[in-house]
Amino acid sequence: MPAIITDQFRIANAETFIQSFSGIGTTSYYYAFLAHPEPSQSSTDGGSKPLKNYRIVTSGNEPIAPKDSFEQENSYHDSMLFAKRITNSDVRRVVPNRIWTAGESYDMYKHNIDIDNVASVNGATNLYDSKFYVITDEFKVYICINNGSKPDISGNMTPEKSTSQPTHVDLSPRPAGDGSDGYLWKYLYTIKPADVIKFATDDFIPVPDSWGDSNTIDVKNAAIDGKIETILVTNAGQNYSYEDDASGIDGTSNTVIPNVPIYGDGDGTATASVTIAGGFVVSVDVSNGGSGYTCAHLELNSASVKKGKVPIAPGSSDEAKFEVIIPPQGGHGADIYRELGAYRVLIHSKFDDTKDDLPDYITSNNFSRVGIIKNPIKQDATGSSSVLIDSTTATTLGAIKLTGDNTLTEYPINAYIYQEISDSEKAVGLVASYDKLTNILRYYQPVGLSTLSSSGNRLLDFASISGTEIKGGSNMSGDSVANPLQVNTSFNLSNVGDVNVGVSFVNGIAKPEIKKYSGEVIYIDNRNKVTRSSTQKEEIKIVIEF
After folding, report:
1. How far is C-alpha 537 from the geometric centre of its chain's CA atoms?
2. How many domains does the chain have?
3. Contact of 401 with 362, CB cutoff 8 Å
4. Residue 82 belongs to what H/E stretch?
5. What sign for the dihedral angle of Cα 291, 297, 298, 299?
6. Of the four, 17, 32, 38, 49, which is 20 to 30 A from 475 by CA?
7. Is residue 338 assigned to a domain?
8. Do 189 and 152 form a contact (C-beta atoms < 8 A)?
């Protein structure tokens, strides 16, 4: 049987997603992460074994499209470097950015745009894809209530070009400038400067995070459910005149016919004023929009005009035709998310060099993947924790505090490293970063890095073993580990002097803060490789469409 998922379902899903950040319903913890230092796929012990669950991100100069499978999800976990929590202040519903431009035509709000009744400007088959609202250079957002549409010689409705930018903040629809372009605009809201910086892009603009708060309550309260704001003339008719005995107007074909009733299922008070010129209908103004209308129609004939007379009989071929536009549920401005179609969410995350965040971040290495993970679990000593991590930042890297003279020591980025755990076991990893000042080596361990056939793909943890060196090989650039150092088995701090290193060491070893393979990877974006510096800041804006 034919069926559809409506846009309202998508809007509801976007709202539910937003609420999950703020504790409404089930609280979830989301983290944005940078990932994939992109070492060689065959960087294990002489290059004899490929890395399982690890994939190159770029081919030539173009990023490879990510894939969605459980196997790939494991590789996404393997490639994580560090993460930053996304809070409710970092998410906002957004809609397409439609900038007002002089001389362009815009669609108007219409309740009946669909596949059989497309938008007049861009041919959209639903309201939300049409150009029915604009943002001005003052960051004010308006809905177009009327675009001056008139029927052409073939009967097609043709909008005018907008020549005056709206600037008003009135609660009722108003024309812009002198109104000569025929446009009628309804003010909705103004985007705050901070929200422009954080949530606006070339393609999207934010909607207010709480419609009906102190900044938008007046617009919301001004909405009237089922109030008619505008009526289009779809056929101008002909041979109209108007005789008003009370005013002495006798059969003129150039006048305004007042108080024409609008018929429908509302409160019965809606009326319009119809202007005729040369016997043709040229415009309609809503005198009283009434309330409660979900369907309505206007007639201009001898039966519908109650005060005065017109010569056109009902059903006559000379009779004009009209289209009454019904507002959205609650009226214009009642529900901004439903009215503008806010089924997209922008997520903002910023990796910067602030004192509190920096310890979990690495520099000098590169990343070529950005992602979002939901509800990762906090690592503990036994690996059996089920507690969700909720810190501001977190690292997925292990760390080793080294000891010894490091003057000539080198641990090149992405070089292969290992530690002899016993005569038959070896812990292996790849260098994420090495800080000579603190003598701390950070590493990651993609599955498949183990070089022991008896271990299969099992990875062994680096261990606090006195007298053992963290040795290694080279990276894909040919840089090799030099003058390897031993584990400092007496180090049990989270700082080296005045430097906060972001993780707590036990006997010289610090486990990753995020339990490996925990959490759900819900977004992946492969990008061209970017090398991080100590002063670098990454600002990420991700738009998710429901």
Report:
1. 21
2. 2
3. no
4. strand 80-86
5. negative
6. 32
7. no
8. no
406 and 286 within one domain: no
* Same domain as 397, residue 301: no
State whether the Cα torsion 476-481-486-492 is positive or negative.
negative
**Residue 458: domain span:** 386-515
390 and 319 belong to one structural domain: no
The DSSP call for residue 419 is E
Question: How many secondary structure helices (H) and strands (E) does the chain include?
Answer: 5, 33
**261-294: per-residue pLDDT in tens?**
999 999 999 999 999 999 999 999 999 999 999 9
In a domain, residue 359? The reply is no
CA distances to 18, 113, 374, 462 from 128, rounded to whole Å, are 20, 9, 29, 55
| Predicted confidence (pLDDT) per residue in 411-437, tens digit | 988 888 888 888 778 888 888 889 898
Is residue 142, in this structure, part of any structural domain at all? no
Q: Quick one: 317 and 421 in the same domain?
A: no
Who's near 217: CB < 8 A, 6+ residues apart?
none
State phi, psi for 11 to the nearest 5 degrees.
Answer: -65, -40
State pLDDT tens for residues 184-200.
Answer: 999 999 999 999 999 99
CA distance 253 to 511: 88
Distance in angstroms (rounded) separating the CA atoms of residues 124 and 115: 8
Of 513, 511, 509, which is closest to residue 468 (Cα–Cα)? 509
CB 430 within 8 A of CB 449: yes
